[in-house]
Amino acid sequence: MGTILWLTSSLALAVDGLVVVQSSHSVAATVVRLQATVEQRGLTVFARIDHAAGAAKIGQTLRPTALLIFGNPQGGTPLMQCAQTAGID
């Protein structure tokens, strides 16, 4: 099962199904710290996506926004075998 964490530079409104936690660090520093913690706990980082960098590639701008997708394949795979959409949570 994977976890998707969305980090943005401004205070975000809570949306059903999303975990929103305010950080006293920048988005970049928060992602680095979070990824280190995730890896120290033996979880797998599947993807790290910088949405602002993607926007810049097409000449657009976004405030700093990042997505870190992580999880535990050993625990998540059996859940996904029962219900594939569990991988979205």
Describe the protein.
- This protein has helices at 27-40, 51-57, 73-82, and strands at 2-8, 44-50, 65-71.
- The longest helix has 14 residues, at 27-40.
- The chain has 89 residues and is of the alpha+beta class.
- The chain is 35% helix and 24% strand.
- The chain has one domain (2-11, 24-88).
- The mean pLDDT is 84.
Question: How would you summarize what this structure contains?
Answer:
By secondary structure, the chain is an alpha+beta fold.
Count of distinct structural domains: 1
Rounded mean pLDDT is: 84
Low-confidence stretches: none
- Strand residues, percent: 15-25%
Tell me how many strands there are.
3
For the report, how would you describe the main beta sheet? 3 strands, antiparallel
What's the total helix number? 3
Query: Percent helix among the residues?
Result: 25-40%
What characteristic shape results from the CA principal axes? globular
Order of helices and strands: EHEHEH
Structural class: alpha+beta
The strand order across the widest sheet is: 1-3-2
| Gyration radius from CA atoms, angstroms | 14 Å
Distance between the termini: 7 Å
